[in-house]
Write a structure and sequence with these properties.
alpha+beta; about 725 residues; about 30% helix; 34 strands; disordered C terminus; disordered N terminus; 5-stranded mixed sheet; 6-stranded antiparallel sheet; 19 helices
């Protein structure tokens, strides 16, 4: 009795599987997260509820059917690793899938677009076709039993009430195990169940996916079962716009009352769905005029005139009988519980707290969609990015709103979506004028989130790391261009984000005690060693004073490298100490990557200011300077620094993109050179007679600009 009252958490089944926690519950079983102690892999362990564990006939069927399902091996079927029992616990060990059920997807989105729903049903159809070929009928196909993994693979789970197709007719107790909303008419009346029963249930599931509602509903299981037997389901496109007529016909054929009028194999259904995706306007779901198969003589069921209400009501009578039996058992159990009620109350409080904590953790992945229409897009996208909500952005040119305002959203206000589910996508329509976008401020945002956000805005982000001690690695330092700049879609934005520096600057600790120096070195991510006379090293660290360091203060060194501290007494420091002489000169060398040259290398005295200059070759461009530790130190062709030690800098060039040369215009020939005016044989010797000693310009009237004079100022009359 104790094993039935308390959960199995912490127990080990089959000397291999350790039960961790409860992760789900169904009509027949509870599902627990388990760990395979041999491999460390997560598994799902389905444990029958106590009311079924005491039914010998049910246990026999459960074991036989679980073992038959374990033989199935298909990419779209949740794997069954084994079946067994531990004490009073009957269990199945299954593959653990991190994902979401199709039912949850429907609840989150209202319905699924038919172009998303059909590929899911195709995957499930292929899996069921494989099971049918191996003699297994699922008998409980519904959105709750279809999982979508994180990589968007659909998988069938819960073959718990499946049985070999060659077995005998289903019992009324068996009917109770499934879900009446998805039952085929033959299941509802307790008739023979075959592959066509799964086709009917898959048709009901597809109906619910694309419309967001069930084809039949009612106040009781019996009322719903009767509707499956008698009523015609509504046409999906009448409930949801955009559904092609071909899909209406496919669903209608799946949900025919007679199995002979449905698809005869799951493969036929998959083939038509696949064709529908290629040509939505084609003709599908054609129902042959084969006569309805007469009802078997032992049931005499007429779909319209005699729906067998009494036989269907046996479902609820069977349930009532079990409830009465459980009540008697509970009375006896209550007498025992009274004795140990104190202990149980304590355990109950612990369990409630544990379940409450687990519930709170899972609720943190849910997000309630708000009304974003009329709000600024950059504020909303920042909020969605922080919450991890999957969204995309579309732009619409309009004069009714200012640019950057949300004018429509695809998921209505109040809908709960899971932030871990990538299939739930919120589409935001943003007003724009032409192609302009205002760049928002991404400072201190995760660079990956900034990259994704800019991509969604239609910009081309470029990542550039930059060492920083002030900004946490992975966060954005700034963008180029800066925030609030107006850009056109398609333009590039450089995201400069922080990385942990590869180098540190040696701090100035001369004159500090060793205790003070060590604190500064640790803050700079540097190690240290202490050297000095044995008498000084024997003193307390607070009485040892740093006289000199190697390397000296201001030197760039690799992080976690060691700095030597030469120490003495306070008097030694005040008297100048006896420092170890440092090299008077340092070598600066340059390595060139790409096509170009660089100048400035050589031997310099310490603390000298040096400028290195990069010159790219024709057809190339300068990129940046890199120090010996791989850090980018300058994006300028002229890099100036103070020499502290011998070092090597690398200059990086890259090729310019090749452009098609513009056509060269044909040069216009120069005008002919004018023939100079001949000089007379007897020029006037009087130099004052002419204003110009050179031959006159043939384009002018004379050597003088005064129009009142003759054509040649050298021959005045």
């Amino acid at each position: 009795m104790a094993n039935q009252v308390h959960g199995p958490e912490g127990m080990i089944f089959a000397n291999k599987y350790r039960i961790v926690k409860l992760i789900g519950s169904g009509g027949m079983a509870n599902v627990y997260l388990g760990i395979d102690m041999n491999t460390g892999a997560n598994v799902a362990i389905k444990i029958l509820k106590p009311e079924f564990s005491s039914d010998d006939e049910f246990i026999r069927r459960f074991d036989a059917e679980a073992k038959s399902v374990a033989s199935l091996n298909h990419a779209n079927i949740v794997k069954v690793y084994g079946v067994g029992h531990e004490g009073n616990f009957r269990y199945i060990v299954q593959e653990y899938i991190e994902g979401i059920t199709v039912k949850d997807l429907i609840n989150q989105n209202g319905h699924l677009d038919w172009k998303n729903a059909v590929p899911i049903v195709i995957q499930i159809g292929l899996a069921l076709d494989y099971a049918h070929q191996n003699g297994i009928v699922h008998r409980d196909i519904k959105p709750q039993n279809i999982l979508i993994s994180r990589d968007r693979v659909a998988k069938i789970t819960d073959f718990g009430i499946a049985r070999a197709a060659s077995s005998t007719t289903i019992t009324m107790t068996g009917v109770q195990m499934g879900s009446v909303h998805y039952f085929s008419p033959e299941q509802a009346r307790g008739g023979n169940v075959g592959p066509q029963s799964d086709i009917y249930s898959l048709g009901v599931s597809l109906f619910e996916m694309v419309t967001g509602r069930l084809p039949f509903d009612g106040d009781s299981n019996v009322a719903i079962a009767v509707k499956h037997l008698q009523e015609t389901p509504p046409v999906p496109s009448s409930l949801m716009q955009g559904i092609p007529k071909g899909l209406d016909s496919i669903i209608a054929k799946c949900m025919q009352k007679s199995p002979e009028r449905r698809y005869q194999t799951m493969r036929q259904l998959v083939t038509e769905l696949d064709s529908l995706l290629v040509d939505p306007n084609g003709v599908y779901g054609v129902i042959t005029n084969a006569p309805e198969k007469p009802a078997s003589s032992d049931t005499n069921i007429s779909f319209r005139q005699d729906p067998e209400y009494e036989k269907i009501s046996e479902i609820e009578k069977s349930a009532e009988s079990r409830r009465i039996s459980r009540f008697r058992d509970n009375v006896l159990l209550a007498l025992i519980i009274v004795v140990i009620v104190g202990v149980l109350i304590g355990i109950g409080i612990l369990v409630i707290r544990a379940v409450g904590n687990a519930t709170n953790i899972e609720q943190n992945t849910d997000y309630e969609i708000e009304n974003y229409v009329g709000l600024k897009a950059d504020e909303v996208t920042k909020k969605l990015d922080a919450a991890g909500v999957n969204y995309t952005v579309e732009y619409q040119d309009t004069d009714a709103y200012e640019p950057g305002i949300i004018i429509a959203q695809s998921i209505r206000e109040g809908v709960i979506v899971s932030t871990t589910n990538k299939l739930s996508n919120l589409v935001l329509t943003i007003s724009s004028v032409g192609e302009s976008i205002i760049l928002q401020d991404y400072s201190d945002a995760n660079y990956k989130d900034a990259y994704t956000s800019l991509k969604k805005l239609g910009l081309e982000p470029v990542l550039r790391p930059e060492p920083s001690d002030k900004v946490e690695p992975g966060l954005v330092i700034r963008t180029e261009p800066e925030a609030n700049t107006q850009l056109l879609r398609g333009e590039s934005v450089i995201i400069i984000y922080a990385i942990e520096p590869k180098s540190s600057i040696v701090p100035d600790v001369v004159g500090n005690t060793v205790a003070e120096a060590v604190k500064k070195l640790e803050e700079a991510s540097l190690n240290y060693t202490v050297e000095g006379s044995s008498e000084v090293l024997a003193l307390d660290a607070k009485k040892q004073y740093v006289i000199i360091t190697n390397p000296v203060a201001g030197t760039s060194v690799a992080r976690k490298s060691s700095v030597k501290l030469y120490v003495g007494t306070k008097e030694d420091y005040q008297n100048g100490g006896t420092p170890t002489p440092t090299p008077p000169q340092a070598v600066v060398d340059i390595v060139v990557k790409g096509s170009g040259t660089a100048s400035g290398a050589g031997v310099y005295e310490l603390n000298t200011q040096v400028t290195l200059t990069a010159t790219p070759a024709t057809g190339c461009k300068f990129e940046y300077w890199v120090d010996s530790l791989g850090n980018i130190v300058s994006y300028s062709v002229n890099f100036t620094f103070v020499v502290k030690e011998s070092t090597v800098y690398t200059v990086v060039f890259s090729d310019l993109p090749t452009n098609t040369p513009a056509p060269t215009d044909t040069p216009t020939p120069p005008p002919p050179t004018p023939t100079p005016t001949p000089i007379p044989d007897n020029p006037n010797p009087n130099p004052g007679g002419g204003g110009n000693q050179n031959p006159p310009d043939p384009n002018q009237g004379g050597g003088n600009q005064n129009p009142g004079q003759g054509g040649n100022n050298g021959n005045n009359g």
